[in-house]
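Long-time lurker. I teach an intro course on protein structure, and each term I like to show students one example going from raw sequence to a predicted 3D structure in token notation. This year I'd like something fresh instead of my usual example. Would anyone be willing to generate the tokens for the chain below so I can use it in lecture? Attribution to the forum is fine with me.
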Amino acid sequence: MVTGFGTIYGSNITPDPETGIGEWSPTAFRRAMHEGVDREGRNLFPAFPYDHFTKLSDADVDAIYAYIMTDVAPVKEVTKEPSIPFPLNMRILQSGWKLLFVHFGRYEPDASKSDAWNRGAYLVEGPAHCGACHTPRNALGAEENSKQYAGAAVDSWTAPPLTDANPSAVPWTVNALTTYLTTGSAPYHGVAAGPMAEVVAGLRQLPDSDIEAIGTYLGSISGAQDSNPAAIPAVAASIAAGKPDPDYRKDLGERLYASACASCHYNPSVDSVKAERPDLGIITDTRLDNPSNLIQTILNGIPAAQGVHGVTMPAFRTALDDSQIAAIVGYLRSAQAGLPPWPNLETAVTSVRTHTGTN
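-- Reply from a regular --
Happy to contribute to a lecture. Here you go:
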């Protein structure tokens, strides 16, 4: 994990007794999860989200321990040391960080809320640790609680706001959130890609009731309702306003869209919008303040393991150069979404290409 303080490598948590956690007791494992302290008593760096895991019940932590010790194959691999410079690499300093920024303790249900809401809050705030990506961080790397779920930059991607500040053209609904987290796509919001695709893949292991609970809780954060019929006219208006001229001869971005994108993403009416082939004028990626998500998706595509099962999007990394991808991105932003253009797009494409794979 590349951070503003250096690169931190994931620990070997297989049950290998020499290089993993095979000799850890349940108590030692629980202390790591709840207190951010390893078996030898050293503070763990908060790239390991113990500030969220502290909310997990003892029973759930013990269940995770039992799974690792019985179902995970031991792997002999020494964990790489983090490349954090002195004095930030001194683990004793994490004691002060914890004192300033971590609220230790198990999740306490809110008696005024439903069982589904409380279950969703427990999952989102604890094991799923959604705020670790979707909440901005301060200069010391701690989540800014006053801006919880306001969106943040993660590994050259933008984790969009989960609040009512989300820029989607169509307001999220509880049903849409649940569908997105279950299938990896929602008709008016786009397809899960990048780090979010990994999240959806993990959530697919949960029972439907847990996914619905997460949708209920996140819906309460964004102010979403179970359904929102008033959103449909907004979708129709966006689609009608953002379609290219039939002869596709206006500019480079429009021509490239016609040849590379329209065969899958052209939607002549609101009824034709499909979850697996979203309209690019209304998805969240086209409406964010930063174009990185849209650029990454065009460059790297969406493989079969991500997004909607059985549907892929080709990568255009080798087929289109930076100026051509910038032209498509600019066209989608201005003509399809009807929003002010992003500045310096070609430079942005070059930067994303460099940081996310081979040229």
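Some talking points for your students: The mean pLDDT is 89. The longest helix spans residues 208-222.
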